[in-house]
Amino acid sequence: MGKNPSTWKRVEKDVGHMYGGDRIPITGRARGSAADCTSRYPLGIEVKHRKALANYIVDGMDQAVASCSEGDTPIVVLHKKYTSVDDCYVVMRIKDHLSWTRKLFDDAKDMGIGGSVECKD
User: Fold this and answer.
1) Region 76-91 average pLDDT
2) Closest CA to 107 of 30, 41, 32
3) Which of 71, 88, 72 is CA-nearest to residue 80?
4) Per the CB 3.0–4.6 Å rule, which of 21, 53, 82, 87 could disulfide with 16?
5) In this structure, what are the phi and psi dihedrals at residue 60, rounded to the nearest 5 degrees?
6) Across 99-116, average pLDDT
7) Alpha helix segments (H runs only) across the chain
8) Judging by beta carbons within 10 Å of its beta carbon (0-12, 13-18, 19+), is residue 15 exposed, middle or buried?
9) How many of the other CB atoms lie within 10 Å of CB of 29?
10) Looking at the whole model, is its pTM more than 0.90?
11) Whole-angstrom Cα distance, residue 43 to residue 119?
């Protein structure tokens, strides 16, 4: 990206650009009324910028990367005790997510598949 992403605004802008969009300024929007970034893909992007990430997430990703076979994509699945497995969170590195997203949507578009895709439960 070139610049040091030291502020949350800069990180949101960089992420938006990575997905072919831009940062949506917070001015004039209520919490939850719009995503942090626009995207050329049907994604609702919410960016969380923190000084540090929880060690278990970083350690989990390190373990997933180390144990991946050639061609596999490392993911970390986060599950909260006493909740449905359907409500787990999947954590991926952004470079892996971008690769999947581009392949899924750009290849489908090239093949004439698709149309509008909406976020649904």
Assistant:
1) 97
2) 41
3) 88
4) 21
5) -60, -40
6) 74
7) 8-18, 55-67, 94-101, 107-110
8) buried
9) 12
10) no
11) 7
